[in-house]
Amino acid sequence: MPTRAVPAATAATYTEPTVFYEYAKDTAEIAREKGIKNVFVTNGYMSPEMIDDFDELDAANVDIKGDEKFYREVCGGVDMEGVLDSVKKLYENEVHLEVTNLIVPGYNDDVDSWKKIIDFVKNLDPSIPLHFTAFRPAYKMKDTERTKRDVLVEARELALEEGLEHVYCGNTYPGDPFENTYCPDCGELLIDRHGFLLQDNFLEDGKCPECGKKIYGVF
Prior knowledge:
With 219 residues, the protein is an alpha/beta fold.
């Protein structure tokens, strides 16, 4: 079956897009005029005024990196509450929201750290997608081992047990079944992915074709 067409989108990512906000907003305005969606992949350390000003933002994937200790000791004393406030603000502004937690062995790979993030997402909206992704040694952390997939799976299972609807494992291998989207009610495969490629989208008007549940997202 051929893959269904999806709307084009721009994504400001890799370099924290908040630091070039004015440029990103100008670009987003042009994209919006042409019917193109706008996405931020961000650490979430932004002001509420900026979020309110960014009317052209359609979706955001925000990194919640760990607990308060992780932000204080690894991220250079960043105020974690500021990040959480940004996530709440984006959600209140009806931006499609997803959360990512990069699990780094020896730093934030414990149940207590995962539970805090899971509880935060659950209290905001259990349908918000949560991605647990694998760390790969690089830059100043070349001596830190790569995250084992089993650790990601454990975190995913905990999140599902706690009531989150869409939980993913990322940065493992192309074709990992936990990259796919499944119906949280009946378990039906809804979106089939292979790495960065969309293999198939079985949703019908944003709903599960099997049980009719409305799925969180922009479709």
